[in-house]
Amino acid sequence: MVRATLASCGSCVQRWRCTVERMSRHVTIRLDEEFHERLKARAAALGTTVTALITEVTERELDEDRKSFLSGIEEFADHWSYFQERFGN
After folding, report:
1. Mean pLDDT of 3-19
2. InterPro entries, per this entry (predicted)?
3. What is the model's pLDDT at position 32?
4. Which residues pair with 19 in a beta bridge?
5. Which pTM does this prediction carry?
6. What do you get for the CA distance between the two ends of the chain, in Å?
7. Is residue 4 within 8 Å of 18, Cβ to Cβ?
8. Residues 61, 51: contact at Cβ < 8 Å?
9. pLDDT tens digits, residue range 20-76?
10. Which phi and psi (to 5°) does residue 87 adopt?
11. What are the Cα distances from residue 88, in Å, to 5, 43, 61, 77, 85?
12. HEC string of the chain?
């Protein structure tokens, strides 16, 4: 989480300065034009930015609880026929 504070600045060009306690990192990736257009369209459809979409998807991929949950679903799916036979539809 980023916590920012506003502080008065003496500069007449910059009246307020934002002090960020934890800076984010910039990452550069190369995408072919077609993929980039698809990514922009998806972000627009979701009402977000390309950066926010990439960040959300990456965070989701790195979420260990999500990975554990998905592996549980896979295990359940492997045994779905047993549940259908035992308990019906």
Report:
1. 50
2. Arc_rbn_hlx_hlx, Ribbon_hlx_hlx
3. 96
4. 5
5. 0.51
6. 45
7. yes
8. no
9. 556 678 889 999 999 999 999 999 999 999 999 999 888 888 888 877 887 788 888
10. -115, -5
11. 59, 41, 34, 15, 6
12. CCCEEEEECCCCCCCEEEEECCCCCCCCCCCCHHHHHHHHHHHHHHCCCHHHHHHHHHHHHHCHHHHHHHHHHHHHHHCHHHHHHHHCC
Which residues have a Cβ under 8 Å from the Cβ of 49 and sit 6 or more positions away? 43
Give phi and psi for 14, each to the nearest 5.
-120, 95
Place of tokens 């554990």: 68
- Structure token digits, residue 48: 């977000």
Length of the chain: 89
Q: How far apart are CA 72 and CA 43, in angstroms?
A: 30
Token pair belonging to 81: 């026929």
**pLDDT for position 67:** 78
